[in-house]
Design brief:
The complex is a heterotrimer. By secondary structure, chain A is mainly α. Chain A has a single domain, classed as ABC transporter involved in vitamin B12 uptake, BtuC (Orthogonal Bundle), CATH 1.10.3470. Chain A is built from 13 helices and 2 strands, in the order αααααβααααβαααα. In chain A, helix 2 packs antiparallel against helix 9 and helix 2 packs across helix 11. Chain A is globular, with a radius of gyration of 20 Å. By secondary structure, chain C is an alpha/beta fold. Chain C folds into 2 domains: 206 residues, Response regulator (Rossmann fold, 3-Layer(aba) Sandwich), CATH 3.40.50.2300; 153 residues, Rossmann fold. Chains B and C meet through helix 1, helix 4, helix 10 and helix 11 of B and helix 2, strand 7, helix 8, helix 9 and helix 10 of C.
Chain lengths: 327, 306, 378
């Protein structure tokens, strides 16, 4: 436990120092890369809530990532073109305000997660993996052929959305926003995991019969976990769209689901900070290996394979030892 | 719309389904016997197609190309099984997904490294080209008809193998109780390698057959992989019968959906909007089918209640 | 327009830093890995061949792989602008990636020269003084195909394209110049590889010709299956499915098909003959349409460098507009929206020895401009 705490602190410190150094060294791109890592980390923390704490292997979290992205894209697009989003039965205008967009992304993803979760949780095991994948694929093909918001071309937002008092186009200021959100999300997840709900969820994952015996329906526990998980990933999607000033159906692709899953596994399943380490390592690999060779996917594959085969429990398993079962 | 078109489309759906079965059969066997989710199954499909293209280019013989695809994919299967997959059997699904995802990356870029970035040429032989006249005046591609035939023969062979042969008994035993067959003195690790190689060979064979009428290129395996997963989930994982039924169901839904949905929407929408909406919906149709099946039968049509 | 000024203000510091650099630094973002890498490799090779032939010391090119992912492309564009401090961006193959990168790059005061993608928004309302398209507006080749289909006497066409924006633009472009009727209009799934269902619909229709836009592997699959189906209606398409890179994979199935292109390797001008010969000796393969576009892009850029300093944006822009370089397509000039006004030819797929290639058989549209120029205000 203690080593894990040190590791957590070190991670947060690294994510604080790198951008500050990059700022002073006038390397804004390093800041952009770190921002990317932080946003992926948030998405991973979201998935980890369902996957690590609830044991729900969702291979379709791209659905929520994409919904968050499109929440940002659609609102900002309407604000940019001065057209209302909806005129009947009441007028909804687009907006460029980040907090409003985040709230929309969280609520929409959560609502969708309620629907998808209620259906998907009727299955389990591999069937659950595949049904979540199927739902994400539906969103993918729907957005590709939906002409209103650009179809496969996606939507470009020429300038980042506004946050009161900050210039979001300045890389370091946008980074600060993402970093603070990551901290809040981590805090929330940590508290949730240690709340009575989190403990019951953990118990349900380990032994479903036992939790039924004490009168708690695991279905509602799982559904709650799935909804929270989807909402967090949706928030990450909105931030990711703002980072790129662009959304497109690739956010819904099954490769995106796979990548979010990689962040979690690479870092360590079920560790609150696992996805943070996983996302950071993934971005580092992508950036470093890409320069080595045109065929850098081979190296990436080999490294991932090595982690699964020889470093069980991901980075956290490697550096912080096996999980202690006391909490 | 004419009945002829409908019949032709049904044949097309059947052909697509049979091809998916070749992929799905291996996938479902591997899952049923070893409990392994193998995302890299699509890569073996690609290996088969590339091997066939290379052999065809060197020898000019389509039969040799098909044999080459079987050998290459089985060989790739054995190598992967012995070096990587073997270590994954007692891991959870999550580790399997990540490890086989990594294998996809290695296979795809490795293939591109060896064969270059441009699609390869592979064509059906002259004696399978052109069309034949079926009863009722249906003109149909001879090659596609052959694929349907080959697929059904392979399906029958698999059923026979599983029901009648010694290895089939071992496979069935392995699905039911893994420890038991070990106790009975069956060499489990050899059985597993064999099953994996069989699945790989089927996938490679499908890749070669389909490569001849589609394009042989890097990344060709992934779309088929996802479809094959949809198939085995609909059919019930581990069931060969389920894979066959699921494959044909998916093949027909996809093909007929593409034909019928735009026309259905055309009844009450203007034509170009109808084609657009209809084709959007038809590209989602098999996923809707899968979600629908799982809602009523959470472990697929023929899935055993594990 | 307030927004744009804001961005300019934000990037002022960067622009000032770039002003001190000598010569021109070009950032090329293109697809070099994964599916579709063939196109990016051709553009890069064409571009670098021109650079090598010029042998200039004042031109530096940074090349990065976008993996055909829009978010990676955006990230690379940020890197090129923020860290590499490039003056000019180029290289993107796909329209959806261009839409993700180009508006932001031009808004930050960079020049963008498109060697391939030409989405309609960037030609019309979203045009920008710093955006130049050296290839075509997306609709151009389809328009020529429509015009040619009419000229060839086709009255009822069956048309199909994937269900995504470029596919819809393709069918719109074809219909804009096709005078006959449509026997059917079908959108297929993006990435679809089996076309039996569509071919059956073609067979059942009363069409007298087929037009399709199915880039990359989709086109290979369609042609092989079409050739085997017993349907023998004449086929017309844009050059993308008949390009040097993929013709070998299609094989005899493509023989005789008419396709429209602004370039062909048998175009008889000195620049083109030299280009085809030198490309072949440098890389050991025939150049493709994409390679020709990469080659032209580099030569256009270098012609502007000769006339003006890149830091004097107005002068450099004027030099690009003048387009004083020997294009491999013969004459080359830009329209008011910085898209080419060019002749589009009709080619036929032929076999030369073992190699499948194209030869020009007719002129599709002469000095053709795109349909969106009127919407462009700059």
């Amino acid at each position: 436990m203690k080593r894990e705490t040190y590791l957590n602190a070190a991670l947060l410190l690294i994510l604080l120092v790198i951008p500050l150094w990059a700022q002073s060294a006038d390397e804004p791109f390093i800041i952009t890369l770190t921002t990317r890592a932080v946003i992926f980390a948030i998405a991973g923390v979201g998935l980890n809530f369902a996957l690590g704490f609830g044991g729900l292997v969702s291979f379709g979290h791209a659905a929520f990532f994409g919904i968050g992205g499109y929440a940002m894209g659609i609102l900002a697009y309407h604000a940019q073109t001065y057209t209302p989003l909806m005129e009947f039965p009441f007028v909804i205008e687009g907006t460029k305000s980040m907090p409003v967009i985040w709230l929309t992304a969280i609520i929409t993803s959560a609502l969708v997660a309620v629907g998808l979760g209620a259906l998907s949780l009727r299955t389990s095991g591999v069937y659950f993996i595949m049904i979540t994948l199927a739902f994400a694929q539906m969103f993918f093909f729907f957005t590709i052929s939906w002409p209103t918001y650009g179809g496969e071309d996606g939507l470009s937002i020429y300038i980042r959305n506004d946050f009161p008092g900050l210039n979001t186009m300045d890389p370091i200021q946008f980074y600060a926003i993402c970093y603070v959100i990551l901290l809040l999300v981590l805090f929330f997840v940590y508290r949730a995991a240690h709340s009575p709900f989190g403990l019951a969820l953990s118990a349900a994952r380990q032994n479903e019969d036992r939790i039924q015996a004490v009168g708690q329906g695991p279905y509602r526990l799982y559904l709650t976990a799935y909804v929270i998980s989807g909402a967090i990933t949706g928030l990450a999607g909105a931030l990711f769209a703002d980072l790129n000033r662009f959304v497109s159906p690739t956010m819904f692709s099954w490769q995106t689901s796979g990548e979010i899953m990689i962040f979690v596994i690479l870092g360590g399943v079920g560790r609150v900070f696992g996805p943070v380490a996983g996302a950071a390592l993934f971005i580092l690999l992508e950036h470093q290996l890409g320069g080595l060779s045109e065929f850098w996917h081979i190296y990436l594959g080999a490294i991932l394979l090595g982690v699964v085969l020889f470093a069980r429990g991901g980075l956290f398993g490697l550096f912080a030892g096996r999980e202690v079962a006391h909490d | 719309m004419s009945t002829l078109l409908l019949i032709e489309q049904t044949l097309n759906g059947l052909q697509f389904g049979v091809m998916l079965f070749l992929m799905a059969a291996g996938l479902t066997l591997i899952f049923g016997v070893m409990g392994l989710i193998n995302l890299a199954h699509g890569s073996l499909y690609m290996v088969g197609a590339f091997a066939a293209a290379a052999v065809a280019a060197a020898t000019g013989s389509f039969i040799l190309a098909l044999i080459g695809s079987l050998i290459a994919a089985a060989l790739a299967g054995v190598i992967v099984e012995m070096t990587v997959i073997r270590r994954l059997y007692d891991r959870d699904h999550l580790d399997q997904v990540l490890a086989t995802f990594a294998l996809i990356l290695i296979f795809s870029e490795g293939t591109r490294w060896v064969f270059g970035s441009f699609p390869l040429f592979l064509d059906k032989p002259a004696w399978l080209s052109g069309t034949v006249m079926l009863p009722f005046g249906i003109e149909y591609s001879l090659y596609r008809l052959t694929i349907i035939g080959i697929g059904l023969v392979v399906a029958a062979g698999l059923f026979w193998m599983i029901a009648r042969t010694r290895i089939g008994i071992q496979i069935r035993a392995g699905e039911n109780d893994r420890e038991m067959i070990g106790a009975l003195g069956v060499n489990i690790s050899r059985l597993y390698t064999l099953v994996f190689a069989l699945g790989a060979a089927l996938a490679g064979f499908a890749g070669a057959l389909i490569g001849a009428i589609q394009s042989v290129q890097v990344g060709m395996g992934e779309p088929v992989l996802i479809l094959a997963f949809v198939v085995i989930v609909i059919g019930g994982i581990g069931s060969i019968k389920g894979a066959l039924v699921g494959a044909i169901l998916v093949g027909l839904t996809d093909t007929l959906g593409r034909l019928l949905l735009p026309q259905v929407f055309g009844l009450f929408m203007e034509p170009s909007a109808a084609t657009s909406v209809g084709s959007s919906l038809s590209s989602m149709s098999i996923y809707i089918l899968m979600a629908g099946v799982l809602l009523f039968k959470p472990s697929g049509l023929f899935g055993g209640g594990h | 327009m307030k927004l744009k000024q804001l961005i300019l203000a934000a990037s002022m510091g960067l622009a000032a830093a770039a002003a001190q650099a000598e010569g021109v630094k070009v950032g090329m973002i293109t697809t070099l890995s994964g599916g579709g890498a063939g196109l990016g490799i051709d553009v890069r090779d064409g571009f670098m061949l021109a650079v090598k032939q010029a042998g200039r010391s004042d031109l530096e090119v940074v090349i990065e792989d976008d993996q055909r992912k829009p978010d990676i492309a955006v990230q690379l564009a940020d890197k090129m602008i923020q860290s590499e401090k490039v003056d000019v961006l180029t290289g993107i193959i796909w329209s959806n990636l261009a839409m993700a990168v180009v508006p932001a790059a031009t808004a930050q005061g960079k020049f963008y020269l498109s060697p391939n993608a030409g989405p309609s928004p960037l030609a019309g309302k979203g045009c920008h003084p710093n955006y130049f398209n050296v290839a075509w507006q997306n609709d151009n080749l389809h328009e020529a195909a429509g015009g040619y289909a009419s000229d060839a006497g086709h009255k009822k066409a069956f048309i199909l394209a994937p269900n995504y924006p470029a596919g819809k633009d393709a069918l719109t472009g074809f219909k804009r110049f096709f005078k006959g009727e449509l026997a059917g209009e079908v959108y297929t799934k993006l990435g679809q590889t089996d076309y039996a269902a569509e071919i059956a619909q073609i067979r059942a229709s009363d069409a007298d010709s087929v037009f399709f836009f199915l880039p990359g592997g989709m086109g290979i699959s369609f042609l092989k299956q079409y050739a085997d189906s017993g349907v023998d209606l004449p086929v017309v398409g844009p050059a993308f499915s008949f390009d040097q890179g993929i013709l070998q994979a299609v094989g005899a199935a493509a023989l005789g098909v008419k396709n429209t292109s602004q370039w062909s390797k048998d175009l008889g001008n000195a620049a083109n003959e030299a280009f085809v010969a030198s490309f072949q000796s440098e890389y050991g393969r025939l150049p493709s349409l994409y390679a020709s576009q990469g080659f032209d892009t580099a030569n256009l850029l270098m012609s502007a460098m000769d006339a003006a300093d890149v830091n004097d944006q107005d002068a450099f822009r004027a030099a690009l507009e003048a387009a004083k370089f020997d294009s491999v397509r013969g004459d080359f000039k830009f329209g008011p929206n910085h898209h080419p006004i060019q002749t589009i030819y009709v080619r036929e797929v032929i076999q030369e020895g073992d190699v499948f290639t194209n030869k020009i058989v007719a002129v599709g549209l002469k000095d053709h401009a795109d349909a969106y120029a009127a919407d462009c205000k700059m």
